[in-house]
Amino acid sequence: MDTPGTPALASPRIIPENSRLAFPLANTPLTDLSKPRCAWAQTDPLLAAYHDAEWGVPERDSRALWEKLMLDGFQAGLSWLTVLKKRDAFRAAFQGFDPEKVARMGPEDVERLLADPGIIRSRSKIEATIGNARAYLAMQARGEDFSTFVWTMAGGAPVRQRRRVPADVPAQTPLSQDMSKALKQRGFKFVGPVIVYAWLQATGVVDDHLDTCWRCHGGH
């Protein structure tokens, strides 16, 4: 289920650290606020740091891709900033987003997580994350690597876009629709096409930095 809204991921959008990213957010000081950025990244220093260090950086690690998809699922109906502020707590609660550990979680763990004030306490999203860990492992057991699955559907390389203004950025695309359908067929939940598109943007499968942004097409 997706809830469209204003761009917050060009766009963590309102919808419904990963330690292996190339530019760790925690080690990236905001030293140049004068750089031109995507509009959504100009509203908060934490968003600006995330934009500069992580958003749109191509991610090819399967576990890291899965973690980000889970966080985007928790974002549904909320702003990305809300999730970003709680990301460390999410990682602690879900044991580093290790799919094998998350897949072993049961009813007692669900109740424990529902009592954790550091995360978004939604039973449906918590249970979906546990189920999605099992779906991830089922793919793995069939010999289907998650990263290979994602990048093959995208054509093997980042999809480069021309986005001049925020209004040019869609909420979903045929690629996100196809990816959403394929994920659902594999047992994933909270993977509607709007959530999936935000995830593809965030993980660099799609490059949606505005043409005026210093990070456009991997700029440094």
From TrEMBL:
Pfam families: Adenine_glyco. Keywords: Glycosidase, Hydrolase. InterPro entries: Adenine_glyco (IPR005019), DNA-3mA_glycosylase (IPR052891), DNA_glycosylase (IPR011257), Tag (IPR004597). Transmembrane segments: none annotated. GO terms for molecular function: DNA-3-methyladenine glycosylase activity. Coiled coil: none annotated. Its EC number is 3.2.2.20. It is an enzyme of class 3 (hydrolase). One of its GO terms (biological process) is base-excision repair. This is DNA-3-methyladenine glycosylase. It comes from plant metagenome.
